[in-house]
Amino acid sequence: MKKIIIFDFDNTLFSTSQFKKELIENFKKLGITQEIFEKTYFASKKNKKYQGYNYHIKLIKKIYPKYSFKQLKDVFKRTLRKSYFFVYPEVLKILPNLSLKYELVLISFGEKNFQRKKIKNSGLEKFFKKIIISSKFNKISSFSKIFCKKAQMFFIEDNPLVLKTVKKKFPEVITICLTGKKRLKKHPSIDYYLKNFSQLLKILKKIEKGQKTH
Question: Is 102 left (phi over 0), alpha (psi -120 to 50) or beta?
């Protein structure tokens, strides 16, 4: 049977908080405060979705008209080029081996151009057979494109709400929540909770042997 592992990108494989911190620091060097960055960042979101850096730049320019669009865009581009440094270190240890044994698929939520550049510069593209960037928060539409009844499917995501929604629609999918240091109340829709990717390897081995463990 074909085995497919579907990974979320932000906060699962990629440290969004560290990326954002670097972006803020780069804007500070230009003279734009963290307060203004945060204000315009949240203003550039619509229905929980970031509208992309071009729209974000327009909001910053309204407050700082002295900066050219190019100057502000260069800050984003310079930070995006460093995306590789914001990939969690353990991810780079496990993906090469997993890609030899499983078909890996990446699903990312957000503005397509922005997410595409983050993923490309992260250096992770080569490990995935398919990459889907979704504009829908529950990722159901993306799952509909890749769901295969004849395959054993795993979904690894840091957001419990997304996992619950996917499990409801696709009960056959094995849902895995990457919690990190967060303490989450266990939910029957989520099959496994992990603190790190070392635990993932152990769980996959036990599943292969036909053992069920939480």
Answer: beta
